[in-house]
Amino acid sequence: GVAMVVEVTDARGQPLRGATVDLRKEGFTVAEARSDAQGRCTFPHLALGDQEVELVGMGVGTVVEVYELR
Question: What is the value of pTM for the model shown?
Answer without folding.
Answer: 0.79
